[in-house]
Design brief:
mainly alpha, two-stranded antiparallel ribbon, 7 helices
């Protein structure tokens, strides 16, 4: 491990302890048996809070992996992971806005439902499922714009910055020419 960015590294080291505090009411996870003998784990509730904790778990592992990649000099791959982490953060924020306002918009409700929907276990099962359009990044961002307008009074500022950050991350994820050089 390198000695650069000590505050960042310390903060990353604290993330799991902070998450344990948030996750404690959802634990222990329940083992759910499948008909074919396989199993999966579930929190003891399927709520917006559980969604936020589940996304935070993925954020923390993504941040740790991105730091390892950066330490090894794989900055392009690091940025690709950070784009995923950024999306998880935006999703958590969108649900937080709904909880703070004590009301869910239709896209926020649909996002929670989609998060807990069972996954197809094979190609045949997937083929039989009705296709559903996932809630878009832009639909979820509207929650952040509403809060920004309430607090700052200028949702355009956040919209401009968010779109630029996503634009930049997308260039790494999709392998834009300059990210390969």
């Amino acid at each position: 491990m390198t000695n650069d960015f000590p505050v960042t590294r310390h903060t990353i080291d604290c993330l799991e302890r902070w998450l344990e505090i948030l996750a404690k009411p959802l634990l222990p996870p329940q083992r759910v048996q499948e008909q074919d003998g396989a199993f999966h784990w579930e929190f003891n509730e399927q709520t917006p809070r559980a969604l936020q904790v589940g996304k935070a778990v993925r954020m923390i592992s993504g941040i740790r992996a991105a730091l390892l990649l950066a330490d090894l000099g794989h900055t392009v791959e690091c940025f690709s992971l950070l784009r995923i982490v950024s999306e998880f953060a935006q999703e958590i924020f969108a649900i937080a806005e709904a909880l703070l306002e004590k009301r869910f918009t239709e896209p926020q409700e649909r996002f929670v439902q989609q998060y807990f929907a069972p996954l197809a276990r094979n190609a045949d099962e997937f083929e039989q499922q009705e296709r559903e359009r996932y809630v878009s990044r832009e639909e979820l961002f509207k929650a952040q714009y509403r809060l920004d307008e309430k607090v700052i009074g200028d949702p355009g500022r956040l919209r401009k910055l968010s779109r630029f950050v996503n634009y930049t991350y997308d260039k790494y994820v999709h392998g834009a020419y300059l990210t390969a050089m």
